[in-house]
């Protein structure tokens, strides 16, 4: 499970992780649940239907499949699976029941989505082995992820008997097992780090397994400045002239003020790193790709994830 | 670099007594809350009586505005300059509390208790995607109705899409007032108007529906929903009506929308959707706040030349400390220039599509904004119309 504050790179990291886990001869499934076609955009393919299809070969040689779960279709699947009621879909839709179940009824949507993911996790292939060696989910953001994952506990309480109750319990067993890990993506900024800390506390309180943090979009540290005290304006001007720059005088003030900002930023990032370290979780890092994440960039991120300890 | 666009002038906007509501919208993390708070503070210090409705402020920012308790009513913000005769109030939205208050205001005490204790209501009020947007609208409507302030600045929820703010309330409103919920209610009031409606669907349809729901949701949950619906009966119609009324308030001439975006592809794409949507809804757009823009006073030195100069210094036989430091600063500059170029390219794409949207740029401060001084600094930049001033 990959979560994190909005915009920190959950979708990107989930996709890179799915690629990274696809070793030679293995299969991974990348799942998205928010109906935004983020995976299709990243892999530069047309919109994904509600169907598992192969979208890439990972850098290790294994296959990556992708699935964009559609809550409405998942509901109809369920009705069919548990009650042989797939045909009732039209009638249900006409009176607004499908809308109710998939967008309004608190939690039901999440039950369907987590249920579908767990089904993929537990599925066996024709040879009796697991259909997928790993399932990676681009999960809802930190603020909602605990409720999302723990929804089946809530449902098992609300629907106290019946197939939904049993299904809910089965899903919780998978999600709380040692085979699940929730990774939280963050930036080295105050709000995302704070949200990560809050998220870790909530996940732990709900008994959900926290994997680690992924610090994304790490900017180059440019150590030379951090290590050296800022030079005096005269010395700087002289050095710039030695470097062959003619407008040295006009450059010293802007360079010094940018240098100060850079030092401030590094100090701030160091504070945020300390905050993350206090969570006592493995930390992985990914650099800011200066030109954004295209397909080549995604593979680069995948290789960088593979190179780190997991 | 100069933009071809008209600058967005925020001071005339917030000074104008006819401006009664300013809505800051945009996708998550771009600086909506910061902008709302900064504009509210500036307007108050320029003499207006202002209330800022924040949704999900960063903890330290909330503290600095005196928002330490979540009591869902506006509180005066301490530490502001009142010499121009203005005042600043701020509040942080508590969506559950707002929902509870609606229930309490529209149902007699016994019925209100029944609703508030209902498990289905508790889940709905705490978590339905859209509840927060609905309650933000609701609160805005309440603040406007009190007529105690001459300017209301509204922050919007951190939705995945800026459009949710406009759409979610109506979605929830039409659910709460809609056909399905009446259908659920049918067994509780057989023979009523809703009952007749259900009959018209045909008996087969009815048993299929309630039977299926019973199986899927579990009869206990279905019973909770039905009790909830029965208890809410008196309030039906009201949700939709109020959501519609607030929507009209947003179309009124005293309202101004500010779309906030960072100079990044995704954020600007959302901003563009929002601009188009506002036009379609005939909602008044004041302009775009491009927040966290990088600038440089040394922009005449490009990234390539800066890097080449850094290399020259580093490869000198007897590089001095000053040489090494200068090389480091040149690399920092090159990095800044690359970012600047990227941001300009992204911005140009937006400008090409929406050349007539006024824009103001707010530079990225080196540190987060978490006190009144920081908000004032942002407010200053919001009021500068020459676009590309560097910071500090
Ligand atoms: N390491 C990186 N380097 C450069 N750009 C990145 C990196 N990671 C993510 N991005 C960019 O940041 C933006 C946000 O990333 P992404 O969509 O993955 O975030 P998200 O957390 O899934 O967002 P949301 O909360 O909206 O779902 C995208 O434009 C993406 O290309
Ligand atoms: N111009 C700016 N310079 C530096 N930091 C900023 C700036 N604008 C916003 N921030 C910081 O960015 C973070 C997100 O801002 P916030 O206003 O909470 O965004 P939103 O309300 O859109 O989610 C906060 O930590 C805030 O202090
Ligand atoms: Mg995403
Ligand atoms: Mg906010």
Automatic annotation (TrEMBL), chain B:
Record GO terms (molecular function): ATP binding; ATP hydrolysis activity
Coiled-coil segments on the chain, per record: none
Spans through the membrane: none
A Pfam family reported for this protein in Swiss-Prot or TrEMBL: ArsA_ATPase
Domain named ArsA/GET3 Anion-transporting ATPase-like: residues: 19-293
Highest taxon in the source lineage: Bacteria
Protein name per its UniProtKB record: ArsA family ATPase
Organism: Streptomyces hainanensis
């Amino acid at each position: 499970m990959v979560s994190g504050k909005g915009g920190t790179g959950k979708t990107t990291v989930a996709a890179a992780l799915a690629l990274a886990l696809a070793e030679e001869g293995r299969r991974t499934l990348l799942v998205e649940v928010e109906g935004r076609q983020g995976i299709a955009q990243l892999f530069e393919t047309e919109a994904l239907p509600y169907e598992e299809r192969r979208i890439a070969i990972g850098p290790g040689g294994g296959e990556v499949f992708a699935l964009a779960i559609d809550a409405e279709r998942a509901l109809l699947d369920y009705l069919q699976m548990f009650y042989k009621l797939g045909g009732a879909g039209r009638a249900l839709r006409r009176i607004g029941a499908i809308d109710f179940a998939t967008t309004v009824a608190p939690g039901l949507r999440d039950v369907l989505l987590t249920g579908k993911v767990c089904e993929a996790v537990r599925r066996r292939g024709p040879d009796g082995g697991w259909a997928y060696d790993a399932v990676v989910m681009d999960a809802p953001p930190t603020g909602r992820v605990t409720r999302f994952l723990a929804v089946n506990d809530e449902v098992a309480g609300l629907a106290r008997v019946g197939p939904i109750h049993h299904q809910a319990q089965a899903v919780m067993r998978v999600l709380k097992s040692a085979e699940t890990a929730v990774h939280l993506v963050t930036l080295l900024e105050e709000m995302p780090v704070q949200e990560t800390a809050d998220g870790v506390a909530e996940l732990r309180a709900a008994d959900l397994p926290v994997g680690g943090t992924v610090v994304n979009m790490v900017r180059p540290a440019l150590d030379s400045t951090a290590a050296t005290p800022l030079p005096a304006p005269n010395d700087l001007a002289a050095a710039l002239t030695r470097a062959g720059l003619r407008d040295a005088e006009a450059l010293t003030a802007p360079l010094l003020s940018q240098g100060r900002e850079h030092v401030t930023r590094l100090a701030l990032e160091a504070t945020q790193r300390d905050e993350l370290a206090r969570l006592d979780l493995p930390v992985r890092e990914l650099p800011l790709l200066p030109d954004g994440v295209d397909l080549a960039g995604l593979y680069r991120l995948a290789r960088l994830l593979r190179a780190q300890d997991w | 670099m100069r933009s071809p666009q008209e600058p967005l002038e925020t001071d005339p906007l917030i000074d104008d007594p006819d401006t009664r509501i300013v809505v800051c919208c945009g996708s998550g993390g771009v600086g909506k809350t910061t902008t709302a708070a900064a504009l509210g503070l500036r307007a108050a210090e320029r003499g207006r009586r202002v209330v800022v409705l924040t949704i999900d402020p960063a903890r330290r920012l909330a503290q600095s505005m005196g928002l330490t308790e979540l009591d869902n009513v506006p509180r005066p913000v301490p530490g502001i300059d009142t010499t121009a005769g203005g005042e600043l109030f701020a509040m942080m939205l508590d969506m559950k509390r707002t929902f509870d208050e609606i229930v309490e205001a529209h149902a007699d005490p016994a019925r209100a208790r029944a609703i508030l204790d209902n498990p289905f209501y508790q889940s709905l009020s705490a978590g339905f995607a859209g509840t927060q947007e609905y309650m933000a609208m609701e609160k805005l409507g309440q603040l406007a109705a009190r007529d105690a302030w001459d300017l209301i600045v509204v922050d919007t929820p951190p939705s995945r899409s800026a459009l949710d703010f406009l759409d979610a309330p109506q979605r929830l409103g039409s659910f709460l007032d809609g056909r399905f919920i009446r259908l659920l209610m049918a067994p509780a009031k057989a023979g009523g108007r809703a009952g007749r409606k259900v009959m018209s669907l045909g008996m087969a349809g009815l048993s299929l529906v309630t039977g299926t729901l019973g199986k899927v949701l579990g009869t206990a949950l279905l019973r909770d929903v039905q009790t909830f619906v029965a208890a809410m009966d008196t309030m039906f119609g009201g949700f939709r009506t109020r959501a519609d009324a607030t929507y009209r308030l947003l179309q009124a001439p005293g309202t101004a929308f500010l779309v906030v975006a960072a100079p990044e592809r995704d954020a600007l794409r959302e901003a563009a959707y929002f601009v188009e949507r506002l036009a379609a809804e005939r909602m008044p757009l004041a302009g775009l706040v491009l927040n966290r823009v990088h600038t440089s006073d040394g922009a005449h030195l490009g990234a390539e030349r800066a890097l080449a100069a850094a290399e020259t210094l580093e490869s000198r036989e007897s590089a001095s400390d000053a040489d090494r430091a200068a090389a480091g600063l040149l690399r920092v500059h090159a990095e800044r220039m690359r970012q600047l170029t990227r941001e300009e390219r992204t911005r140009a794409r937006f400008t090409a599509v929406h050349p007539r949207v006024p824009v103001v740029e707010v530079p990225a401060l080196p540190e987060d904004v978490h006190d009144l001084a920081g908000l004032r600094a942002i407010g200053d930049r919001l009021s500068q119309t020459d676009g590309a001033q560097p910071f500090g």
